[in-house]
């Protein structure tokens, strides 16, 4: 297999992983792998240059995008959809045990969830926190 194919396959895998996690970090690694793939098309035998190019692109995107994203999030009118979920009611789809993840449906979305309590399927829960892809819930008590 030609090395540029490996770089582009890696970029594709990272892109799919990014779509599943929505962290943007894997997107920068994806773009870095694609940059390494482009370098490998121009210089197929210079593997070190390919690795350096990919690493520098990914590192540069990581370092320089952080202030831009921070400014964007602080701008007036920005609304983070993920923070709206805190305080909402959900239903346990897959039981949650202490130290293990389960699944909770909030609105029309299903989230991986953790809790300090053991929660059975079909219990009503309140979302008390949200990480990048995992929410924290507690038993809904009125």
Shape: elongated
Kindly state the mean pLDDT as a whole number?
89
Poorly predicted parts: none
Structural class computed from helices and strand pairing: alpha+beta
SSE succession: HHHEEEEE
Q: Strand share of the residues?
A: 15-25%
- How large is the radius of gyration? 20 Å
For the biggest β-sheet, the strand order reads 1-2-3-5-4
Largest sheet: number of strands, sense, barrel closure: 5 strands, mixed, barrel
Strand runs, count: 5
N- to C-terminal separation?
A: 61 Å
Helix content: 40-55%
Task: Work out the helix count.
Answer: 3
The tally of domains stands at 2
The assembly state of the depicted protein chains is single chain
Please provide a written account of the structure.
The chain has 142 residues and is α+β, with helices and mostly antiparallel strands. The protein folds into 2 domains: 2-76, no CATH class; 88-139, Nucleic acid-binding proteins (OB fold (Dihydrolipoamide Acetyltransferase, E2P), Beta Barrel), CATH 2.40.50.140. It is 46% helix and 21% strand. It contains 3 helices and 5 strands; from the N terminus they run H-H-H-E-E-E-E-E. The chain has a 5-stranded mixed β-barrel with strand order 1-2-3-5-4. A hairpin with a 2-residue loop joins strand 2 and strand 3. Helix 1 runs antiparallel to helix 2 (25-42) and helix 2 (25-42) packs antiparallel against helix 3 (47-74). The model has no long low-confidence stretch (mean pLDDT 89).
Quick summary of this structure?
With 142 residues, this protein is α+β, with helices and mostly antiparallel strands.
């Amino acid at each position: 297999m030609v090395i540029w194919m490996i770089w582009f396959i890696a970029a594709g895998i990272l892109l799919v992983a990014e779509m599943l996690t929505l962290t943007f970090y894997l997107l920068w690694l994806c773009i870095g792998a694609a940059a390494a793939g482009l370098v490998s098309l121009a210089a197929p035998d210079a593997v070190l240059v390919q690795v350096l190019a990919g690493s520098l692109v990914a590192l540069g995107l990581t370092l320089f995008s952080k202030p831009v994203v921070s400014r964007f999030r602080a701008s007036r009118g920005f609304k983070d959809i993920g923070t709206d979920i805190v305080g909402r009611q959900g239903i346990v789809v897959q039981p949650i045990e202490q130290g293990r993840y389960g699944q909770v449906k909030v609105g029309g979305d299903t989230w991986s969830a953790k809790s300090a309590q053991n929660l059975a399927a079909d219990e009503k829960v309140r979302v008390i926190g949200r990480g990048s892809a995992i929410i924290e819930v507690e038993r809904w008590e009125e």
